[in-house]
Design goal:
Radius of gyration: 21 Å
CATH class of the largest domain: Mainly Alpha
Number of domains: 3
Low-confidence stretches: none
Distance between the termini: 48 Å
Structural class: alpha+beta
Number of helices: 11
Order of helices and strands: HHHHHHEEEEEEEEHEEHHHH
Shape: globular
Strand order of the largest sheet: 1-4-5-8
Helix content: 40-55%
Largest sheet: 4 strands, mixed
CATH superfamily of the largest domain: Butyryl-CoA Dehydrogenase, subunit A, domain 3
Mean pLDDT: 96
CATH architecture of the largest domain: Up-down Bundle
Length: 386
């Protein structure tokens, strides 16, 4: 039995949602699974090739409307993220950063000229985007960012450094957030602009099948129309993070499902003490607990997706999903590893790769502690961030 068949959760999806899931699952099976162990080991991933393939089936910015985007539902986007992360968290991150951060920022806050220039090419994967908010000294506290933008005549001049930026080393365009005299503003920055440099971050132990970089902005001169006209203050970049976190709520379940599916297969065939591992009570207790948590996480993600499609999803509700589903997915990956014993650390199985990736997913787009404080503020009415 497949892990998500336990409660017949397929019956909760529409025919269109199941069809989209099947298309993405097939692409992951054909394109990602055969190669991702080597990508992970090498720390290299063919971002541009993948982006074009994802663009061909409408995955990039799929929940946005117009400009070549598919206009799919939030739930359809969620099940796509689940299937992508069942392949690898880094592959799902490519799609999330492209669509829910870079494209969404331009789509939601950009001028019509910015949208026409970038979104159609980003939707096809011809142009790669990234999202520059995090800095070397400011991750969970973006209000303390030091990257600045100043006026010089009609131009803007940007100076600063962004860190841990997915897609940065291969990106064509970055959405950069900087402090100005009028507060935090967003800028659309072509990566070939003079003064822009991107450096690949090496020696990662997690998300190795993802291109991650540092962006250095050294007096980058941009025209007046580079600013996102409808983005003012931190509320704008934080709304983009909410979009990306929603995809993570679903994506983490994909990593957990892949671990549990692998473990069920292994436990059914691995013989110890004259019987399959799956025949021992302790093993079945572990499998049962993991399956229950996976079902609960799926129901939570689906509920949030339906709220999003109804226009009723709130940021703290996304925090509930991200906090719970990533935390439980990581616990499932670790527990599955114990059932495989020494084989659990082998690259022949995806468990350690998923567990290592989920350590990053636990941290990015808001650490567990940040999401606990978001939920705590909702419950108490008191902010405890400082």
């Amino acid at each position: 039995m497949a892990p998500l068949d336990l409660l017949a959760l397929d019956t909760l999806l529409s025919d269109e949602e199941r069809q989209i899931r099947a298309v993405v699952r097939q692409l992951v099976d054909d394109r990602v699974r055969p190669e991702v162990p080597q990508w992970y080991e090498d720390g290299q991933v063919p971002v541009r090739d993948l982006a074009r393939e994802f663009g061909r089936i409408g995955l990039l910015g799929m929940h946005l409307t117009g400009y070549g985007c598919a206009g799919a539902s939030a739930v359809a986007y969620g099940v796509a993220c689940l299937e992508l992360e069942a392949g690898d968290s880094g592959v799902r991150s490519l799609v999330s950063v492209q669509g829910s951060l870079a494209m969404y920022a331009i789509w939601r806050y950009g001028s019509e000229e910015q949208k026409q220039r970038w979104l159609p090419r980003m939707a096809t994967g011809e142009a790669i985007g990234c999202f520059g908010l995090t800095e070397p000294d400011h991750g969970s506290d973006p209000a303390s960012m030091t990257t600045g933008a100043r006026r010089d005549g009609t131009d803007w001049v940007l100076t600063g450094t962004k860190m841990w930026i997915t897609n940065a080393p291969v990106a064509d365009v970055a959405v950069i957030w900087a402090r100005t005299d009028d507060g935090v503003r967003g800028f659309v920055v072509p990566m070939d602009s003079p003064g822009v440099a991107a450096r690949e971050i090496r020696h990662k132990m997690s998300l190795r099948a993802s291109s991650t970089g540092e962006i250095v902005l050294d007096g980058v001169r941009l025209p007046a129309d580079a600013v996102l006209p409808d983005a003012a203050g931190l509320r704008a970049p934080l709304s983009c993070l909410t979009e990306a976190r929603y995809g993570i709520v679903w994506g983490a379940l994909g990593a957990a499902r892949d671990c549990l599916h692998t473990t069920l297969d292994y436990a059914g065939t691995r013989q110890q003490f004259g019987r399959p591992l799956a025949g021992f009570q302790l093993t079945q207790a572990k499998l049962a607990d993991m399956a229950v948590e996976l079902q609960k996480g799926y129901l939570l993600a689906l509920h949030l997706g339906r709220l999003a499609d109804a226009g009723a999803l709130r940021p703290e509700q996304v925090s509930v999903g991200k906090l719970n589903n990533v935390r439980e997915a990581l616990a499932i990956a670790r527990q599955c590893r114990t059932i495989l014993g020494a084989n659990g650390i082998s690259g022949e199985y995806p468990l350690m790769r998923h567990a290592n990736n989920l350590e990053s997913v636990l941290t990015y787009e808001g650490t567990s502690e940040i999401h606990q404080l978001v939920i705590g503020q909702r419950l108490t009415g008191l902010a405890a961030f400082a």
